[in-house]
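Customer escalation, tier 2.

The customer says the design service returned an amino acid string that "doesn't look like it belongs to this structure." They asked us to rerun it and document both sides in this ticket. The original structure tokens are below, unchanged.
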């Protein structure tokens, strides 16, 4: 179903209990499944991807695993099942069957795992005969998805004599690898990261209750809203200064667009007023924070900034080809973009093209991608906008539309 959003005052004031991080949640769930003793996870994400992983790990009597659209679940479970004795089939949505997994499968095979492709070489679905991992050292391409590396790290303490992961080339999405490392350390694992390798000692995960922090990727939509509002004061509860999430860089990015962040007792406060100055151009490499690129692209277009987005290579293999989707939808709204390889350039509109930006009754396609829906929603502060397929947000932020109502968006 489509949702048409509008906002009458352009003034945003409110307090939001921000949704929990699915990335943190999914790591802790795998650890829980590998840990000999039970522990409590507080504030586990309500994201569909996390609910799916929880069910597959703890409520699935079958040997068949369907992860739907959830990339981390596909990758983390593939490694997990390769470790576990038994014969399993793992698959996902049509899109998941187009998202590559060869780098991870090759690495697991190098360690002795028995995995075969059931449809297309290099892509899910997979048949996994688990329980054959014996190797202790692998070399892996770090430039496709960090999820492969996190998946290997998470199972590593359970491999006899541990694991050394050697990187063949530049790592992308590094903060996600660091998040995995820090969470594993928190659960008592002996792990170290030198420049080009990560070494994990064999050992047990030590049970301890864990509180999941709120999600900085989800916070980015609130930054997008604040940037386009005439004035804003929004409290986002559940976020902390010492976050494990690379997307916390949204604080620094949005300072350039006039949004100030302050840390308050239970989270952060975003403030924006028309007297906050904003930059006239923007140039940023999103290699370490790919999930907020769409949010920032929509903000830059709406603020009419000359902008260059670099480091977007991985966006092509996510829920959709996000570079293509952004270009299509922003062009539809009258903005002027170029794609140069994996870079996206947003051009400032001229006097001649300016009125193109006064769109009306435009509907934005989501390409089955939660981040398309949420990244474009702040545009409702400029003019009513229809987002086709409101339901996609369930993947990471099921209460997104309800939370928007709390600050007077109407639909
Ligand atoms: O490990 C994780 O939780 C994630 C890693 C990133 O993927 P890539 O490493 O494929 O960029 C990110 O885009 C994804 O949303 C979540
Ligand atoms: C890319 C994402 O998730 P995943 O790869 O886990 O499907 C995302 O949430 O933006």
């Amino acid at each position: 179903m489509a949702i048409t959003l509008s906002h009458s005052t352009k003034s945003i004031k409110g307090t939001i209990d921000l949704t929990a991080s699915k990335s943190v949640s999914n790591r802790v769930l795998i650890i829980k499944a590998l840990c000999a003793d039970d522990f409590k996870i507080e504030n586990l994400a309500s994201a569909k991807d996390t609910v799916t992983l929880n069910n597959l790990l703890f409520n699935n009597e079958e040997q068949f695993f369907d992860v739907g659209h959830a990339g981390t679940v596909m990758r983390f479970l593939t490694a997990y099942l390769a470790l576990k004795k038994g014969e399993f089939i793992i698959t996902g949505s049509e899109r998941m069957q187009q998202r590559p997994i060869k780098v991870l499968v090759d690495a697991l095979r190098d360690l002795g795992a028995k995995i075969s492709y059931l449809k297309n070489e290099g892509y899910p679905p997979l048949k996994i005969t688990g329980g054959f991992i014996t190797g202790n050292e692998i070399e892996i391409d770090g430039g496709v998805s960090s999820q492969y590396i996190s998946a290997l790290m998470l199972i590593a303490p359970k491999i006899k004599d541990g694991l050394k992961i050697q990187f063949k080339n530049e790592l992308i999405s590094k903060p996600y690898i660091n998040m995995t490392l820090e969470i594993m350390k928190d659960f008592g694992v002996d792990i170290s990261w030198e420049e080009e390798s990560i070494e994990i000692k064999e050992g047990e995960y030590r049970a301890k209750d864990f509180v999941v922090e709120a999600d900085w990727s989800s916070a980015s939509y609130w930054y997008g809203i604040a940037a386009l509002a005439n004035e804003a004061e929004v409290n986002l509860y559940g976020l902390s200064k010492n976050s494990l999430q690379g997307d916390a860089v949204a604080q620094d990015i949005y300072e350039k667009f006039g949004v100030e962040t302050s840390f308050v007792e239970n989270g952060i406060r975003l403030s924006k007023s028309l007297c906050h100055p904003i930059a006239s151009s923007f140039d940023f490499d999103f290699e370490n924070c790919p999930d907020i690129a769409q949010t920032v692209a929509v903000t830059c277009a709406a603020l009419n900034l000359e902008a260059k987005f670099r480091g977007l290579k991985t966006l092509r293999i996510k829920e959709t080809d996000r570079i293509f989707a952004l270009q299509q939808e922003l062009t539809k709204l009258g903005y002027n973009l170029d794609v140069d390889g994996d870079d996206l350039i947003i051009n400032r509109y001229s006097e001649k093209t300016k009125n193109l930006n006064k769109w009306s009754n435009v509907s934005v396609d989501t390409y089955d991608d939660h981040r398309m829906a949420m990244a474009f929603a702040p545009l409702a502060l400029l003019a009513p906008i229809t987002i086709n397929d409101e339901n996609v947000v369930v993947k990471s932020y099921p209460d997104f539309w309800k939370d928007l109502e709390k600050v007077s968006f109407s639909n």
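Tier 2 assessment: The sequence is consistent with the input. The CA atoms of residues 173 and 386 lie 32 Å apart. Residues 22-34 form the longest helix (13 residues). Sent an explanation to the customer and offered a walkthrough call.
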